[in-house]
TrEMBL record:
Cofactor: Mg(2+)
Family label: Belongs to the FPP/GGPP synthase family.
Record's protein name: Geranylgeranyl diphosphate synthase
Alphabetized InterPro entries for the sequence: Isoprenoid_synthase_dom_sf, Polyprenyl_synt, Polyprenyl_synt_CS, Prenyl_diphosphate_synthase
Keywords: Carotenoid biosynthesis, Isoprene biosynthesis, Magnesium, Metal-binding, Transferase
Metabolic or biological pathway: Isoprenoid biosynthesis; geranyl diphosphate biosynthesis; geranyl diphosphate from dimethylallyl diphosphate and isopentenyl diphosphate: step 1/1; Isoprenoid biosynthesis; farnesyl diphosphate biosynthesis; farnesyl diphosphate from geranyl diphosphate and isopentenyl diphosphate: step 1/1; Isoprenoid biosynthesis; geranylgeranyl diphosphate biosynthesis; geranylgeranyl diphosphate from farnesyl diphosphate and isopentenyl diphosphate: step 1/1
One example GO MF annotation: metal ion binding
Lineage: superkingdom: Eukaryota
Length: 375
């Protein structure tokens, strides 16, 4: 990650340590407090709304919580045990180091230079971090989920390289830098993207340590499905077909986002849960969580596309509007889109409510970050 991108990441993450914010999504950086403070959990003596056999209980705050005041006091005391900013920096840096090691310069140099150019261009590494955090939530270790996390980032980078091509979105800027085909030519960009796709599956297959073959095969199958004709490729196709269409409504828009963007946010969460040894119920609960944040990510992206500059975004602003693509602001307007994003955020947090809140805190924080990001 470049120093500029890392600085932006640090600045954004630091907002999670602020307190005293309201819950309105439409206000700037609202609700960006310690993630546990907005965690939708009931501490009453009655049965909780969501029970999951095999999931961790709320042991950290247990039976001593007899009032909301006591809850607040305990959470304040525990807050120092969790530093979202430091955790995200550490995770992103570990992903960057692992990516650098995984794709060294080799012969033929041109294709490897193009692969590394796009793969190491920066970015917040949300997808690989999601994979690592989901694995940890289940009780697994980073060493088990890191190859899958890198594979997802390689595939994500491949999708961006393809997306930027003249035959697709014809974009000149990505992550604040000229796009791959502008630097290396269209032919090399296509081949480098294809090479990243192939290497992603090779890497997860040969570099994942100590995982039973059945679990590894299941994870690889999930990843393949996420990017195929029922996943990313389907979303991209429908997105292209919908440009300039007067009949593209909310149902089609949701299909596009769930497949084009959501599939590559769902996959790392599910992979992390599978590789970490999660039960079927845990995997499916986290899948539902990931579906919410996947759609949330794209709704926010649509909003940013029409409210931020190219310099702020690190990519060409307003390109969806110029291309006459169907977006949430186009169909709902800005304010209704923000309300929908707030609803998705709350639904995502609800899917984490059956897990130990302290183990889930990083995912809660990351959900808040996705909802309130500025680029």
């Amino acid at each position: 990650m470049s120093s500029g991108n890392l600085s932006a990441w640090v600045q954004t993450c630091s907002m999670f340590n602020e307190a005293g914010r309201s819950k309105s999504f439409s206000s700037s950086t609202n609700n960006l407090i310690h993630p546990l403070k907005s965690f939708p959990v009931s501490f009453s003596t009655s049965s909780p709304k969501r029970r999951h056999p095999g999931l961790s209980p709320f042991s950290a705050v247990s039976a001593v919580l007899t009032s909301q005041a006591t809850v607040t006091e305990v959470l304040e005391e525990k807050k120092t045990l969790f530093d979202f900013k430091a955790l995200m920096i550490q995770k992103a840096e570990s992903v960057n180091r692992a990516l650098d090691d995984a794709v060294p310069l080799r012969q033929p140099l041109t294709i490897h230079e193009a692969m590394r150019y796009s793969l190491l261009a920066g970015g917040k590494r949300i997808r690989p971090v999601l994979c690592l955090l989901a694995c940890e939530l289940i009780g697994g270790d980073d060493s088990v989920s890191m190859p899958a996390a890198l594979a997802v980032e390689m595939i994500h980078t491949m999708s961006l390289m393809h997306d930027d091509l003249p035959c697709m979105d014809n974009d000149d800027l990505r992550r604040g830098k000229p796009t791959s085909h502008k630097v290396f030519g269209e032919d090399v960009a296509v081949l480098a993207a294809d090479a990243l796709l192939a290497f992603a599956f090779e890497h997860i297959a040969v570099a994942t340590p100590g995982v039973p073959p059945s679990r590894l095969v299941r994870a690889i199958g999930e990843l393949a499905k996420a990017i195929g004709s029922e996943g990313l490729a389907a979303g991209q196709l429908v997105d292209k077909d919908s440009e300039g269409s007067a009949n593209a409504g909310l149902e089609k828009l949701q299909f596009i986002h769930e497949h084009k963007t959501g599939a590559l946010l769902e996959a790392p969460v599910v992979l992390g849960a599978i590789l970490g040894g999660g039960t079927d119920e845990q995997v499916e609960e986290l899948r539902s969580f990931a579906k919410c944040i996947g759609l949330l990510f794209q709704v926010v992206d649509d909003i940013l596309d029409v409210t931020k500059s190219s310099q702020e975004l690190g990519k060409t602003a307003g390109k969806d509007w110029v291309a006459d693509k169907v977006t949430y602001p186009k169909l709902l307007g800005i304010e209704k889109s923000r309300e929908f994003a707030a609803k998705l955020k709350e639904e995502a947090l609800e899917h984490l409510s059956g897990f130990d809140p302290y183990k889930a805190a990083p995912l809660i924080g990351l959900t808040n970050y996705i909802a309130h990001r500025h680029h």
